[in-house]
Structure formats: C-alpha cells, structure tokens
C-alpha cells in the first residue's frame, strides 16, 4: 500500500477550518469544522475547491475533529453520525469533480485526528491522555472503518502528539486496505509529549500499513530537522504541512505571534525528502498558490 507518492512532490491543501473561519464561519462549537458537514456542506466544498484551484492536488477531509461519540453527544443519532463522516469524503470528491476538466489528477485524504481533538480542550498538543494503547486503538477503529468504507485515496493520521497514539493508530489500521500517512505534531525536536523524534518515527518505520510519515500542525522552522530525524530511521516518503507560524492560545482562544510560513521553506522541505508539502492552521489558498509556484517542476502533475 504505497499510495500516490512516487514521481514528484504532491502539493496538499492548507488549513480547512481556519479558511472556513476566514470566510465568516463560526467554528467555536466543539465539533469545529465537522459541524459544517451537517450545517453548511457547500462551504466545505467551496474551500476544498479553492485549494484545488490554488494548485493543491490533495484535499484533506473535514473529519479531523469528527467522532461518532462527539456527534452523538450533540444529539446526532449514530446512523447520522456515520453518514456525516462518510459525507466528509464525498464532499472532497465533489470538489475534485468540479475542477476535473483541467485533467490534473487529484487525491482525497480522509483526516483522522487524534483523540485529543475530539475532546476540544487542546489536549492534542499535550498527548498523554491516561489511556492505554489498546483503549486508544479501540476508540479510533470505528471512525477509521467508516472513513475507509467511504473509499478515500488515503488516510491522513495527523496531529499525533505522542508515540502511544501512533502505536494505537497503527494497530487500528489492521485489515484496512487504504494507504495512510502518519504525521506528528511536534515542538522543537520532540513530540508534544516530549519523546525524541527518531524514536517516534521508528514505530512507523516497519509498519506496512503506513505509506509515509512526517509532521504537521507545528512551527515551520521545526520541519526540516524533523524530516531529517525521520529520514534517519525510515526510507518511507515524508510529509510536511506545518501551521503558519502563529500559535494558538488555548486559554484566550486566539492566535498570537508572527507568520513564518514561506514558499522558500517548502523548497527546504523537498530537499530534505518531503514528497507531500502543504499547510495546516492559518495556511490558506494564497499560501498554497505561492508554494505551487515555487515548487514548479518538482510538483507531480
């Protein structure tokens, strides 16, 4: 299960939720962008399309903060919760179909966020939830099964804060016939839970279920060293899609600091082995258009 990683660099999208917010959508609910799967699906399609038109060839679905338990807790029946997860993949495919006339090949990556994202309390930036690997795997498995059944091209196991959750996600992929990448959220040279990155990437290095590894939802300046740490323990393709460089203040619930995301850094990431390059929070379609222009001949057509 190698996925579409050979023959050039794949340009991924940027921050779906923060782009929705920039379009005037209120995502203060605990479901975050996943709420719009029910309330405003056309808005999600519009953002996927905007990233495609900017040059991205991978759309990451609006399922990052979605969970069956989260939907049910907000009064949504289990069967409808399953339908909403499936819809996240369908909406990305719809956007892909809307731009298909240009003949470019594009992919849909179903987002599988960490357990902490469903808690909506910022704990995905800490990890160490007090759950065992087995408990985390059991929690992730039903959502992965639903998303895989919707037939995305890839699963994006993203913003993983620690090694335990990485192990759980790998275990939850057992029998799933969809290629997946696994990307950690990091701070400096460690996972958010404080583990060295070479140890973190090593747990995925031998897994046939994981087609690529990397980092996301981190500072752009931390990416190159993280990719070097990954390359030291695996020859799998690498992925890189950091935030804008601004930081989320969990207590005040707003972004602080300066933007450091730049197309020039994207060239560094490619030189370090990245085969998927994109953005996360606060990285919008104009940013990805600049990256697409900068990468030029590196990009897979």
UniProtKB/TrEMBL annotation:
Domain Hcy-binding: 1-295
Keywords, in A-Z order: Metal-binding, Methyltransferase, Transferase, Zinc
Cofactor annotation comment: Binds 1 zinc ion per subunit.
Cofactor(s) annotated in UniProt: Zn(2+)
Listed GO biological process terms: methionine biosynthetic process; methylation; S-methylmethionine cycle
Entry binding sites for Zn(2+): 217, 280-281
Gene3D superfamilies: Homocysteine-binding-like domain
One term of GO molecular function: zinc ion binding
PANTHER family hit by this protein: HOMOCYSTEINE S-METHYLTRANSFERASE-LIKE ISOFORM 1, ZGC:172121
NCBIfam families noted in UniProt: PRK09485.1 (NF007020)
Name of this protein: S-methylmethionine:homocysteine methyltransferase
Taxonomic source organism: Speluncibacter jeojiensis
UniProt gene name: mmuM
């Amino acid at each position: 299960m190698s996925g579409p990683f050979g023959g050039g660099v794949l340009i991924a999208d940027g921050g779906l939720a923060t782009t929705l917010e920039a379009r005037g959508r209120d995502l203060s609910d605990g479901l975050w962008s996943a709420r719009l799967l029910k309330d405003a699906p056309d808005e999600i399609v519009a953002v996927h399309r905007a990233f495609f038109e900017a040059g991205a060839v991978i759309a990451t679905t609006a399922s990052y903060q979605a969970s069956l338990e989260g939907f049910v807790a907000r009064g949504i029946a289990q069967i409808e919760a399953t339908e909403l997860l499936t819809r996240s993949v369908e909406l990305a495919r719809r956007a892909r179909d809307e731009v298909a006339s240009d003949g470019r090949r594009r992919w849909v990556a179903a987002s599988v966020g960490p357990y902490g994202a469903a808690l909506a309390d910022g704990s995905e930036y800490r990890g160490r939830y007090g759950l065992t690997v087995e408990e985390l795997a059991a929690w992730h498995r039903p959502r992965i099964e639903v998303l895989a059944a919707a037939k995305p091209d890839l699963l994006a196991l993203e913003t993983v804060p620690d090694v335990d959750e990485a192990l759980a996600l790998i275990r939850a992929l057992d029998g799933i016939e969809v290629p997946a990448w696994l990307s950690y959220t990091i701070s400096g040279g460690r996972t958010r839970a404080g583990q060295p990155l070479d140890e973190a990437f090593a747990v995925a290095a031998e897994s046939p279920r994981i087609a690529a590894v990397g980092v996301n939802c981190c500072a752009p300046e931390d990416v190159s060293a993280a990719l070097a740490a990954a390359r030291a323990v695996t020859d799998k393709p690498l992925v890189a899609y950091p935030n804008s460089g601004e930081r989320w203040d969990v207590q005040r619930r707003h972004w602080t600091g300066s933007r450091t995301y730049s197309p020039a850094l994207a060239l560094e990431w490619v030189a370090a082995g990245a085969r998927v390059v994109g953005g996360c929070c606060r990285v919008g379609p104009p940013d990805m258009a600049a990256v697409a222009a900068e990468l030029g001949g590196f990009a897979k057509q």
